[in-house]
Specification:
The complex is a heterodimer of chains A (290) and B (937). Chain A has a domain of 165 residues: Rossmann fold, CATH 3.40.50.150. Chain A is 32% helix and 18% strand. In chain A, strand 4, helix 7 and strand 5 form a beta-alpha-beta unit. Chain A starts with a helix and ends in a 25-residue tail after the last strand. Chain B is α/β, with parallel strands linked by helices and 937 residues long. Chain B has a domain of 224 residues. Chain B is 54% helix and 8% strand. Chain B is built from 32 helices and 12 strands. In chain B, the strands form 2 sheets. An 8-stranded mixed β-sheet of chain B has the order 7-6-5-8-9-11-10-12, sandwiched between helices. A 4-stranded antiparallel β-sheet of chain B has the order 1-2-3-4, with helices on both faces. Classes of the chains: A alpha/beta (290), B alpha/beta (937). Chains A and B meet through helix 3, helix 4, strand 1, helix 8 and strand 8 of A and helix 9, helix 10 and helix 20 of B. Chain A: It comes from Lichenibacterium minor. Chain A: GO terms for molecular function: protein-L-isoaspartate (D-aspartate) O-methyltransferase activity. Chain A: It is an enzyme of class 2 (transferase).
Chain lengths: 290, 937
């Protein structure tokens, strides 16, 4: 953590100590979002205090979020500081259904209705890390779903487009964004969303640097490949929820104008699957077969 | 059909035996109802037999009904679970009646009447409640609630079975004097109930199928009340009861139809995760066609949001103006799909066919006579026609699909009436069976993504019998090729580590060796070296070609050029360079991927995250360098090449042994893609089930077995708790006698459930197979039970011979049945049904003997205390056996299931002599007046 972050954090902590009172946590964020806002990663307590002070979130969820963050690091699903920051700033609890609130930061994917799941935090983190989104890049998401993926992306770039095919779900998620924006989560203003058939992409806003496709299809829609910039990357989780592989598609244009599309895995090697029980703390490490 | 779902098999099982049992020995021959108590007697009458038969039919109908509800709402019909449920209900009722025999003997009229009246409301209520708490197999591991939902479904659907079992049990209790006829009525009624239900599948949509068992039970109840009314007040009392029954029944049916819409409840909760649920949510989706029959609930939806181009090359995006829009309808069977139905396209719109993997055979076959093994939504047929086939013979085993395409005007005009294209000839049954039974040969035989919508959850696919993909089926396809003809098989390749595709490669290679005419060369690489070609696309599809007589170098060049143009990956072609150096590392990596405790790999710029807990993570990435713009050959592609190379040039057994998953070829004996985990690895997997949760279909089989085992344990616990005095009394040969009943329980049920899966090979439809099997098993076992009466006195010599014969027949069936069924499958369907019905008869008839013989002898010898054990253990093993069959079948094969059944009957031979040991210190009782205690085991 750099000095500036620390000073901001410490200062706001001091300020919030004066302002904080029970019940305040779920109201508007104490500070409006700005792109420099970075929570401390020096420890659980520091993180929770800072987030309460700056974002006004529930300390219970913040603690769970921190624990999950540590598991993400252990499992190498977060690859650098900007991705870690994006995870820590995204209030996952606002994107799960009330029935699953207690499991918001579990490793598992959760049902959000309409036959759609919110992917587990490890899957989202790993996929987003592999996209390596840089500030200012244009990102298109096919399959808004819960909205969590785009919310996460909005901490990496200010240009996110998201398309959802199921109308009531698109509307529900849009209103989630709008409510959160109203509370001070200004970063979600970066997300433009619409209810449409994602197969055709969003040509008027393309081409895109990165595309995330989270809907099942028996082939990669040609319009999406066309709307991907040369050198752009597309990631597509393949397989059922919970056991997905992330297909990575890279588009390169040679000097002669010939286009190559290469499919790969985000790792390009055989990846040991790590049982999540192993990530949930030291106590159950011994659970593993030897 | 699925293995798991293979059987609604349990007959309505009569809890018989306790009628001879009483804690106080009651010597003396005849028990005649005292004249002073006419009200206590039940007299034989046609109405009684009809009543018993109808209620027994209702119970069987209920089983198939619940299977259908599961199929439509979820992904499989969970037949083994349903059979387990029925067995459990009859087991529980038997145990309870054993304990409370006196009570039931006194209050039989009230008990039977109440249970038949309550059948309808209990069924409606249980179904409605169960449909509000559907379980979702996808979340089986990730959501702790799902196992309770599964258990709740199990418990809820048990309730109506309990009512049916209680009715039948009580009638049997009072019908001891003419038991054999009542029992026969029960079996015939149950058998016919199954057939009748098959008929109502044409009339009622799945959500309303509960009406059939209700109507049967109501009719049964009406008969019962007129048969059982006390003679003094016959008319008035029967009338009152009839009215009450009808009133309750009508109210129940009304509740089924009225309550769900009024309260916003589900009548049949179709999972949101099934294909049809998505289609219904598309804003412009509209139902084009729906038809229900025993062949499934078929729905066709139209929407601009449907896009089909299975396995399309990514290069299509830059070489085509556009993939056609609004070109598709989605076909859903029991809510699963979609299979794409293609609009009749203009020639320029079909340009994208060239970018589909199924186009491969047509690159080198010119003007072929083509055989398409499964019509499905028709895409293979369209590709075959567009690519210049002179003729296309297309088979479709589901008559309901053919009916839709032939009769529905919308579908006909949408598809340009493709089935009536002059170049197209339609075979209205399974392509595999057709090719096996006809001498015609073809230039191209195509099996592309059959049975698999691809988008639907793969977990359920794997546990389904896939007879079209077995080694024997592949041999059939290869033999049906003209000289120079090509077999083309395309499968989804969406697994990493690869599983299904490796099984496919092995299956095709084995088949190719088997059809090599020169027997001496079969083991040599040259037998298949030049006749195979394979490509895959990462996380998309894999295609294998087999050419009779081998590919020429120029053909290989053509095919490889296409692979390159499509950016697909070579898996095998004659002469493909292969470097064995990577083998050890690859196999080791894949094994470690599942079974090591190594930390996850770092990728990308790992390790840069600051803060506590960030492990230094850069160490393992050096060798691969993380993601980059130009990936090397991907591990799964390398694995495919390794597998194919070993299959052709030798060494496959060793590679397969070292590979992390089971890659055994599919055979008619083990027609499953499932069971990827090697049995020896199962214990190591227990703490990491989540990494195989894509195999939820397979995991569900284990979950079902777990629940069935717990439930079955209750069958042993209840008698132990309530009848401990008799349960723990010592008797000569008691342990072996218990073993006898365990063998019968296990043997009968595994044969029944296993045969239903077997007979699908010839009948090609799970529901039809189940109905024929159940009817045949019940009717012939019933006849066997009746005949058993005549051999009772010679049981010591006759029954061992019968048990021996059963064992021999079952083990023999295990060896030869699949071959016979392939031949039977080539006959006209009606003849197939008849022959299947009759081939079940020999074992079924003999399997009717052991249970009643033993029960009668227990009674004769005054060992009625053993009835508790007989029912408890028999029921327990039936419940567990039904649930275990799919697991045994997927791991070891269907013949093993039959062999297991046969061995169980052989083990019963020595155990039977323990049954015949005289009770210590008790006088042998006469046979007079003791009912024939009959029971299918």
């Amino acid at each position: 953590m750099d000095r500036r972050t620390f000073l901001i954090g410490a200062g706001s902590l001091a300020a919030s100590a004066l302002l904080w009172r029970p019940g305040f946590a779920l109201a508007d964020t104490p500070k409006p979002y700005d792109a420099a806002m970075t929570p401390p990663v020096t420890g659980r307590d520091d993180f929770v205090k800072w987030m309460v002070a700056n974002r006004g979130e529930d300390p219970k969820f913040l603690g769970e979020k921190w624990d999950r963050y540590e598991a993400l690091l252990r499992n190498h699903d977060v690859w650098d500081a900007k991705d870690g920051r994006a995870f820590l700033l995204t209030p996952r609890e606002d994107f799960v259904r009330p029935a699953n609130l207690s499991r918001a930061y579990d490793h598992a994917f959760l049902d959000i209705g309409y036959g759609v799941t919110i992917s587990g935090p490890h899957a989202v983190a790993r996929m987003t890390s592999s996209l390596d989104v840089k500030p200012g890049e244009k990102v298109l998401e096919i399959g808004t779903g819960s909205g969590y993926q785009s919310a996460y992306l909005s901490h990496l770039t200010d240009k996110v487009w998201s398309i959802e095919i199921i109308k009531p779900l698109a509307e529900r998620t849009r209103s989630t964004y709008d409510e959160l924006i109203g509370k001070g989560y200004g970063e979600f203003k970066a997300i433009a969303s619409k209810n449409a058939d994602g197969y055709y992409g969003w040509a008027e806003n393309g081409p895109f640097d990165k595309i995330v496709v989270t809907c099942g299809i028996d082939h990669i829609p040609p319009p999406l490949l066309q709307q991907l910039k040369p050198g752009g990357v597309m990631v597509i989780p393949v397989g059922p929820p919970g056991a997905q592989r992330v297909l990575k598609v890279e588009k390169t244009v040679a000097a002669d104008g010939s286009i190559t599309v290469a499919r790969s895995d985000i790792f390009n090697k055989v990846v040991p699957f790590v049982p999540f029980t192993k990530l949930e703390g030291d106590a159950i490490q011994g659970n593993h077969n030897k | 059909m699925t293995a798991q779902t293979s059987a609604p098999g349990a007959r309505s099982r009569a809890p018989i035996g306790w009628e001879g049992w009483d804690a106080s020995p009651r010597p003396g021959p005849a028990r005649r109802p005292p004249a002073a108590e006419p009200a206590r007697a039940l007299v034989p009458s046609l109405a009684l037999y009809l009543g018993v038969g109808l209620v027994a039919g209702a119970v069987i109908a209920l089983q198939i009904c619940i299977m259908r509800i599961f199929s439509v709402g979820s992904w499989a019909h969970f037949g083994s679970l349903v059979v387990s449920l029925a067995m459990l209900a009859f087991g529980l009722v038997s145990a309870v009646m054993c304990i409370g025999k006196g009570f039931f003997a006194r209050h039989w009229r009230a008990v039977a009447g109440t249970s038949v009246v309550l059948f309808a409301p209990l069924l409606v209520a249980a179904n409605l409640v169960a449909q509000q708490v559907p379980f979702n197999a996808i979340f089986l591991l990730s959501d702790p609630n799902q196992k309770w939902r599964l258990a709740a479904n199990f418990a809820l659907y048990l309730v109506p079975f309990l009512a049916g079992a209680l009715f039948l049990g009580t009638v049997f209790l009072k019908a001891d004097r003419f038991f054999a006829r009542v029992y026969f009525a029960d079996l015939v009624g149950a058998g016919l109930g199954g057939l009748l239900f098959l008929g109502t599948l044409f009339l009622l949509p799945p959500e309303n199928l509960v009406v059939t068992p209700i109507v049967l039970a109501l009719a049964g109840g009406l008969c019962w009340f007129s048969a059982a009314a006390p003679p003094d007040a016959a008319r008035a009392s029967a009338l009152r009861a009839d009215l009450g029954l009808l009133a309750v029944g009508v109210l129940a049916v009304a509740a089924h139809f009225v309550l769900p819409p009024a309260l916003g409840l589900n009548t049949l909760a179709v999972s949101d995760y099934k294909g049809v649920s998505y289609a219904r949510k598309f804003p412009d989706s509209h139902l084009v066609y729906r038809d229900y029959s025993p062949f499934g609930d078929i729905a066709v939806y139209g929407s601009s949001y449907l896009h089909f181009a299975p396995g399309l090359s990514d290069n299509a995006a830059f070489n085509l103006p556009q993939v056609p829009e609004n070109a598709y309808l989605g076909l859903y069977i029991d809510g699963e799909g979609p299979s794409g139905i293609m609009r009749s396209l203009k020639p320029e719109e079909t340009a994208y066919f060239r970018f589909l993997p199924m186009v491969y055979p047509y690159l080198i076959a010119k003007s072929p006579d083509t055989f398409v093994i499964q019509f499905g939504g028709g895409i293979s047929t369209d590709v075959a026609l567009r690519d210049g086939s002179k003729s296309v013979t297309v088979a479709e085993s589901n008559p309901a699909i053919l009916k839709a395409f032939r009769t529905d005007p919308v579908l006909k005009s949408f598809t340009g009436d493709v089935l009536n294209d002059p170049r197209v000839r339609v075979v209205d049954y399974d392509g595999r069976l057709f090719l096996a039974g006809h001498p015609e040969s073809y230039d191209v035989v195509d099996l592309s993504l059959a049975d698999s919508a691809g988008l639907s959850a793969p977990g359920g696919f794997a546990i389904v019998e896939k007879y079209g993909y077995t080694r024997q089926a592949m041999e059939t396809y290869m033999r049906a090729l003209k000289p120079g003809g090509i077999l083309s098989v395309t499968l989804w390749n969406k697994e990493e580590p690869p599983k299904s595709v490796l099984k496919l490669y092995g299956t095709i290679a084995e088949a190719a060796r088997a059809v090599e005419p020169d027997a001496a060369a079969r083991g040599e690489p040259r037998a298949i070296e030049t006749s195979l070609f394979a490509v895959s696309s990462y996380l998309s599809t894999a295609t294998v070609l087999y050419k009779k007589g081998g590919f020429t170098p120029s053909e290989i060049a053509t095919l490889r050029d296409h692979t390159h143009a499509m950016s697909f990956d070579d898996i095998y072609y004659p002469g493909i360079p292969f470097d064995a150096a990577a083998t050890d590392k690859l196999l080791g990596d894949y094994r470690n991927a599942i079974f090591s405790d190594a930390p996850a790999p770092a990728a990308g710029k790992a390790g840069a995250a600051d803060g506590a807990g960030a492990a230094p993570a850069a160490e393992e990435v050096e060798d691969d360098g993380g993601p980059g713009p130009t990936p090397k050959v991907l591990p799964s592609t390398l694995m495919g090449r390794l597998a194919f190379h070993a299959l052709v040039y030798g060494g496959w057994p060793e590679v397969a042994d070292r590979y992390v998953f089971d890659t055994r070829a599919l055979t008619n004996d083990r027609p499953y893609f499932a069971a990827y985990v090697k049995p020896r690895d199962l214990p190591n997997l227990l703490d990491r089930l989540e990494i195989v949760q894509d195999e939820w279909g397979y995991l569900l089989l284990w979950a079902t077995l777990g629940i069935a085992t717990v439930a079955a344990a209750s069958l042993v616990v209840i008698p132990l708790v309530f009848g401990w005095r008799t349960a723990f009394s010592t008797a000569p040969g008691k342990g072996r006698a218990i073993l006898y009943f365990a063998c019968l329980g296990l043997g009968y049920i595994v044969v029944e459930v296993g045969l239903i899966a077997d007979y699908t090979l010839a009948l090609n439809n799970a529901t039809v197979s189940a109905s024929i099997l159940i009817t045949s098993m019940l009717v012939f076992s019933g006849l066997g039970s009746l005949t058993a009466d005549r051999t009772l006195d010679r049981a010591r010599s006759v029954l061992p011979a019968i048990l021996c014969a059963i064992g021999a027949i079952l083990i023999g069936y295990g060896f030869f049945l699949d071959r016979a069924l392939v031949l039977i499958g080539t006959l006209p369907y009606g003849l197939r049904l008849l022959i299947c019905f009759l081939t079940v008869a020999p074992p079924a008839y003999l399997m009717g003997f052991p249970m009643p013989t033993a029960m009668t002898w227990l009674a004769r010898l005054g060992k009625e205390h053993m009835f508790l054990w007989a029912w408890g253990i028999n029921g327990c093993f039936s419940v567990v056996g039904a649930a275990a069959v799919p697991l045994i079948a997927t791991a070891f094969g269907l013949s093993t299931v039959l062999t297991l059944g046969g061995v169980a009957y052989l083990v019963a031979i020595p155990a039977f002599f323990a049954v015949l040991l005289p009770a210590a210190g008790k006088r042998r009782r006469g046979t007079e007046g003791l009912p024939l205690t009959v029971q299918t085991p």
